[in-house]
Every structure is written in C-alpha cells, then in structure tokens.
Amino acid sequence: MATIAAKIGQGVGASAAQQYERVIPSAAIQSDTERANAAMERYAQGDESAFASVYDAVAPRVHAYLIRQARDRVVADDLLQQTLLQIHRKRATYVAGLPVLPWAFAIARRLYIDECRRRKTDALWSARDVGEDDRRAWALPDDEVATREAARLVEAELLRMPGNQRVAFELLKVDGLSHQEAAQALGTTVNAVKLRAFRAYTAIRTVLGCPLEPSAAGK
Amino acid sequence: MSDSKPPAPSPRTGLTDARLRARIIERSAREPSPTRAQFSLEQRVVLSLVVLVPLLVFLASGGIRVGPRPERLVIATALGSAILATGVAIVGIGRGRSMLGRPRALLFTQVLLTPAVLFGWRALLSACYPKMTLEWVERPGLRCFTLSILLACVPLVGLLWLRRGSDPLHPRLTGAAFGAASGAGAWVLVDLWCPVGYVPHLLVGHVLPLLVLIALSALIGSRVIAVSRGPSTLMER
C-alpha cells in the first residue's frame, strides 16, 4: 500500500503522513472518474436514479476535502450538500464525457471560500480540532506516539504553508486527482499545480527531517 | 491500532454516513432541476433571441449604410470583424473541454485583445482608402455608442441568463468575456451601419461601448454567473 508517508518520509517519517494516508489505488481513481462521468451523463439525460450513483462517486472525496478544509464536520456536511445540489441544479449543462470530479471540487472550493468570507472567522475555524471520526476517515495511526507527533508536524506545516500550495498538495496526494484535474479544479495551469505541490512536498520533507537532496530539488 | 479501522467500507466510502446521503438525495428529489432536453429548448429560445433581436434593432436603425465608403471597404471591414467576432465568441462563450470553462489566461487574453484588434482592423483598413479617416463634425460617436449598447445588451443578458450560477472559478472574467463577445457581435453590425473612420469617432462610438460592456458584464457576472450557496438545511440541525 503506497502511502504519502512512505513516499515523503521514505522511512524516516514514514508514520508521519499516515495521518494523510489515503488508500486510493490508481485503478480505483480511474474507475471512480469513469463511474462519475457515466452516472452524470445518465443524470443529465433525466435518469433521476442516477443521482445516487453520482453521489457515491463524487461525495466521499469531496467530503474528505471539505472536512480537511473546514475542520468541522457539520460545516463540511453542509457544504457537501450545497455542492451536490449545485451539480443537481446544473445537471442539464453537463457535457457528455467531461470530467465531473474537477467540477465538483471547484464548486466545493468556491462554496468553502464563500463560507469563510461569510463568517469571517478563519482564525476561529483553524483553531478547531478535527473530530476523531473525521481523522479516521483519512487514516488510522499504526504507531500512536510517533505518528501523532509526526502528524502534528505535518499538519502544522500544512497549515503554515500558503493555501494554494496546501490545496494543490492535498488534491494530488490525498484526494488522488490527476495534475490535469487538480489544475481544472483550481482554475490554473498544470505546471502551476506541479510547482505548488512540489513546494509543499519539499516543505513537508524538510519538517520531517528528510529534505530533498539539492540535485533532486533542482530537478 | 489498525484493528480499529472500520471493517467493511474503505476509508473513502466510510466518510459519508447513510443519513447524510439520504438527506441530500431526498433534498435533490424535492428540488426540480431541468434535464438536458429541457435546458436545450430554453437554450435554443434564448440563442434565437440573442441573434434575432439585435438584427431587428439593426434593421430598425436603418440597416447597412454604405455612405461615401467604397463597397470593397465595407465588405472588407465587415468580413474581417465578423471573423474576429466569431473567434471571440467561440473563445468567450464556449466551455472547451472542461465543465469549468476556458482557462483564465485565455479569457484574459480574449478580453484584452478584442477591443484592440477590432479597432486596429477598422482603423487600418479605413486608413488604406483616401478620405476615409476624415473628421465628421456632426458625428462625434454618440449615436454609434448608443447603437452598440442597444445591439449588445440582449445577447449579453441572454448569455448571462444561460450561464447563471454556474461558474465556480472565475465568474468575473467569464462575464467580461461575455461582454467582449456580445460587444464584438454588435461591432460587426455597427461597422456596417457607420461610415465614419475618423479615429476619435471610432474610439468614442465603437471602442468605448465595448469597454463599457466588458466592465459592466464583469460586474454583473461576478454576481450572476458565480456559484452561490442555497439555503442551508444542515447547519441549523
């Protein structure tokens, strides 16, 4: 099972990013994407029952993203509902074959940003802890102490880094979006997404005590 | 600790509980939304109006007026600006291969280049013919300004209507692109209508309305095209 921790830490901080571990084999990502697109196409054509399939293909990943962003289960639930309802309202505009996931992520991100603006309490939000249930959603620690400490470091580093780097990193490494999909969801270029994620990756490796070697960093 | 992992569902499917799923599906079932076929009908009606209303306004304003212009100049300016306007419309209105519309850079380029290229084309061609860039004292450009706005407002409203509440990324820029597209369409008709090639007249009567439309549609777009949340049913539980 390839984990972000293993990739990032390569042994040193292997347990660290297990908090951010997501079990998304590439085949599952492919299957999710195709399933979402096919279900959305049926739903756009008027098959009401297809909404459940759209939900099943889209909601888990968008919900995980919203929980990480909002750090509040109730808010994430509400934003997920709003996101799915937006897709429901605009189903007629869906063009067959176009990817649904970046669309859903972009809507979720917009609604989250609007919610932050509406409340104007970003600082308060950041201070909130993610509930244990939510944590379990993305990973469960194998080694309590080391994992918690390293996870705390990673989490602190993610919170410290610029928002665009954090979101790009999470969309790629946690939500399993492709570079192209993440770029679409963020409304930017593939190269910009790669650069942001690389910077986040470098920062996390540094905080875990395994910085990239200069030759690797220069690549 | 791995023993405490929820057994059956994967971590991903375990994220959303059945109650939330049921509630969202039930909520969507209660709120009607048009299917593609229904929307397609609405789209056809709106797009017909977007094309027909400006043409009617144009004909009511007198239609094509050649004036002292050589016919070749009229045809060349109209044909060139029509081709440019078509390109502008394809870039500005089309979504490309994404549900999220064109990339920001492309829309930005479209918005910036449209007035410059259309103006350049008209001014350059007029300069190629003798006496075509002379001043017309009685035509400062106000009538062209008004006609441009009149011709473009229906297409603009139509486009904004069709794409309302649909852009989560850059609604302001999408709105501006709609303004540029509808303004470019109006430019073609005004080109056929207005024989004046005097540069200050072109700036006031032709370029300025295009800029006004871009600014106005960016402003409206940021409110109308943007994705916005509906009433919450979960937050207050």
List keywords for this structure.
heterodimer; A: 219 residues; mainly alpha; Butyryl-CoA Dehydrogenase, subunit A, domain 3; 12 helices; B: 237 residues; 0% strand
**Succession of helices and strands of chain B:** HHHHHHH
Strand content of chain B: under 5%
Question: Rg of chain B, please?
Answer: 24 Å
The CATH class of the largest domain in chain A is identified as: Mainly Alpha
**Mean of all residue-level pLDDT scores of chain B:** 86
Shape of chain B: elongated
Distance between the termini of chain B: 33 Å
Mean pLDDT of chain A: 74
Query: How many runs of DSSP E, i.e. beta strands of chain A?
Result: 0
Biggest β-sheet description of chain A: none
Q: Counting H and I runs of at least 4 residues, what is the number of helices of chain B?
A: 7
Which pair has the most extensive contact?
A-B, 61 and 52 residues
How many helices of chain A? The count is: 12
- The CATH superfamily of the largest domain in chain A appears as RNA polymerase sigma factor, region 2, helix turn helix motif
Structural class of chain B: mainly alpha
Helical content of chain B stands at 55-70%
Biggest sheet character of chain B: none
Strand content of chain A: under 5%
SSE class of chain A: mainly alpha
What is the ordering of alpha helices and beta strands of chain A? HHHHHHHHHHHH
Question: How many domains make up the 3D coordinates of chain B?
Answer: 1
